[in-house]
Amino acid sequence: MRRVVITGAGSINALGNGTRAFAEALRNSRCGIAPLTLFDASGYRTSCAAEVRDLTPPAWLKPAVARHSSRSDLLALIAAHEALAQAGADSAASGLGIVLGTTVGGMPGWEEYFRQGLVGQRRRRHAVALTLPVSTSVDVLAAVFGCSGPRLTLSTACSSGSNALGVAVDWIRAERAPAVLCGGVDALCRMTFSGFNALQALDAVPCRPFDRDRAGLTLGEGAAMFVLEEREHARARGARILAEFLGYGVSADAHHITQPRPDGAGAAQALQRALDDSRVRADEIDYVNAHGTATPLNDVLETRALKAALGARAHRIPISSTKSMVGHCLGAAGAIEALACIVALREGFVPPTLHLEHPDPECDLDYVPNRSRPHAVHTVMSNSYGFGGNNTSIVLRGVG
Amino acid sequence: MNHTELKKRLKRLLVDGLKLEGVDPESIQDAAPIFVEGLGLDSIDALELVVLVEEQFNVVIPDEEVGKLAFASIDALAQYIAQQQRAQAAQGGA
User: Fold this and answer.
1) How many CA atoms lie within 13 A of A168 on its CB side?
2) Do the beta carbons of residue A217 and residue A202 sit within 8 Å?
3) What does the alpha-carbon distance between residue A181 and residue A179 come to, in Å, rounded to a whole number?
4) Active site residue: A147, A207, A233, A328, which one?
5) Could you list the residue range(s) of the whole structural domain that residue A150 is in?
6) Where are the alpha helices (H) located in A174-295, listed in sequence order?
7) Mean pLDDT computed over A221-239
8) pTM beyond 0.80, yes or no
9) Does A62 map to a domain?
């Protein structure tokens, strides 16, 4: 089977702009959660969010494109630009495909447009209407970077980012494209805040994955984009290989519209399928980046799933939730967490789970509490469990 | 309104209506291109401009052909609007 490698990565989120800033923030155990400033949070049970601060259109972007871009478009553009620059591939010539995972698309811009209409604001920019479809960001990326390969937007709630990487892998394995720009993006908006608030799924304080007193998630925003490439294609052009994407597995709970199967069976199935697809044994996994949303349900079912699928190994490896640092970025989460895995592989440390003060007897594994830890890892896994039981696990391996 | 005032108003309309950040309306030259080069407006800006012109002046840009000519510059747009308004006045009668 054709092997898939990662030759470029780009990042923007609450921990900063660029993969360098992200890696350093992970190493320094920084928290990107702070009071929300993008819109009025009064009335919600929390004002905590992991916002991208001072988002401005970059100098290389044409002003007309910047003017018509939604917040999501801008985040995706910034991350994609970094990934493409790193990969050094001539995107126009290579038939580069694009797969993007997202949940809200241009929703923030539409909320503002709608609000302006409700308060009778006379002059509104109607062009924002063009940015609502979730497929818009992919079209903007293709236009700006000249990508002529197949393109796709997918949405599977919180596992969108991971699934986008999985589809890119499928395309490369099926020889649909030699290289694919892929990842996830999402921007904070009133709809998701209100939705999670109504479900009572937001913690009033920065989220506390695996903690006994955890009370829900903290929302975040951002984008992580990668260039995935067929391995021989990358080697032939002398590309720098960041890591190898070994494989992935998906499953569906068929249980409830928002709640996961409490026994973790769906999650364990995705995990096992990822191991099978990667041809990796449980005892080869050195680190797991958990879905770790800090909801009472997720953290315990994830612990069960890890034990079921990894057996004894689950008790011997570090497992952490970077959502404690960068928030739950929904459609971007799986991609951002894949990047955290790449950082761990390349830099020899595992990021922490912040705000872990009180161990939960039902969550009794090593979650790397509060401080990052130097720890060489070679094969790592990332889990994402989307609303409605969209389970995905991916496996990455270090190079050199 | 006279022709000079109309052009001034159009320049302000462009900047305010299209939300052109950091552009001083006075700096827009009457005869300079406003699409692609010059101000660098694009086809999405053109859509918005059609709506703004209709709202502000009650003047319609019926198709892309007319739009290309009318939007060539501030001068061209002012001329088109003045022309249309004269035609409307002539038909209006009462």
Assistant:
1) 33
2) yes
3) 7
4) A328
5) 4-236
6) 190-198, 231-236, 265-278
7) 96
8) yes
9) yes
